[in-house]
Amino acid sequence: MRILILITAAIVMLINQMHAQTYFYEDFEYDGGMPIDWTQETINENYYWRASPGGHTVTPEVPGSRRPPAAFEGEYNAIFEKLTLTNAVTRLITPEIDLSFAIKAQLQFYHAQYERCLISGGCNNDQLRVYYKYTDELENESWVLLKTYTDEVPEWTLRTINIPDSANLDNFQLAFEGLTGPGWGTCIDSVVIIENGLISRFISKVNIVQPSESYVPAGSFNNPILRIDITVKGNQGDIILDSLHVISLNDPGVSLAENGLKLYATEDSVFRDPVQIGSEGNFVNDEYIFVGLNKSLETGSSSIWVTYDMPGSISSDIHGSKLDAYIPQGGIKVGGGNYPAVDQSPEGYRELFESLFHDDFETEKGWTFIGEFEQDIPIGLGGVDYGFPDPDYAHSGDSVIGTDLTGLGNRHGDYENSLAKDAYQAISPVINTNYYAEMNLQFYRWLNIELFDTARIYYSLDESDNWVQLWTNQGVIVDDEWRVNPIDLPEETDFASSIQFKFTIGGSDLFSTYSGWNIDDFSLVGNYITYDLKPVEYIGPLCYCGHD
Fold first, then answer.
1. Contact status, residue 51 vs residue 30, Cβ threshold 8 Å
2. What is the C-alpha to C-alpha distance for residues 40 and 522, in angstroms, rounded to an integer?
3. For residue range 505-530, what is the model confidence (pLDDT) as tens digits?
């Protein structure tokens, strides 16, 4: 019995020590050099992480010009940066770390990656991925992705990642993989692995935001109206989202499609790969409660989205109506608590516009494709040497239209060299525009085009073959996310009997090629006008009729 008591006491003492234990720490303070026990592995291009007193700058002699302006602590941090339109990718790898006695090891580090706007057009940031090395029972090693950070991080931000129990080995390693944007660098500092012990999960923060203010075309689906960001801390137990109460702020006369009010969950604040939770429905007396959600939330930040599906046709008198909603006090039941503390109606709203034509490319609606333009499911091809690849997901649904989505020609996923003008074309069906004015074209694009190559958009009126250029790139474009792209049509399109649109790629030079067009959720909206008065002829008064 005495031996058992001693063993138990020793275990308790060991656990208490481990709760305060730091397994690894790195602050990059080596007088401008990198730590010698770290290694680097180049994935694409032979370009390396380096030490820097903050982010990159083109004017190092100007104090505060770096982004971020200084290291998080001390004088230096690690940075991966290169002003390039190619994807330089390199992993910065820690030495082996002994986690064999860890209970709940946790990685913490500070991170920043500022967006950079190029004179030739486009704003981008570098990106960061965090991996750990896993060794199985047969001593096979593989890198496992822990976390991806693709968005801009405009100030030093604490990142916290719980390390999987299966990685608690005596030869544990981390890799910080940088990918050039080109931004002002992806920066890390104060890397530490600590023992986090057993901590029950709890709600750290609930934040409700307006995710978009772009207009909503009639006939479109899954339009985000509210986003609820929930931050969970801790590593033990379950945090369950039980129910969510939504109250409409839509203008009078606005009706959603049947069962057009939906709730989705994503792992972060980007509406990518959303998972529907709860049962869709519709407002009753301007209210709806999603019940029985039983959604388990993991440690970290996740997002819940309130979305609208809109009917395919609306009356012209509600064109421009407001679409909005709010969460009442206590309307979110999660983790045994009620949030928010007061009614939350974030600033901003969306407007409903009457659609003349909407296509999410989930069905065939009469487009004509020439060259390597096609309609299919994007799978992330292209962009190996220059720019970014195609997306590996549609903006909504599954399918998009784009150039070489499936691996055509010699440059799989990219457009080809030496293309003639407008060699690749996607031509819309003819759209009836009788009685419409003030028309606007809106679509979501993911476009990568080289500086000396050309992408264009044209329109043609009244089923003629007279194509008028509406838009062209003014330089290099390197999109790495879906971007909404509204274009006001010129006045000459008002009251035309019909219109068509054409997206093209070409010409292209003999050198670098990029991944080209990706287009989703294409809409033409306009204002239906039954009466339109304007002078057509000057009749009088005339000279010599009693007037000078």
1. yes
2. 43
3. 999 999 899 999 999 999 999 988 76
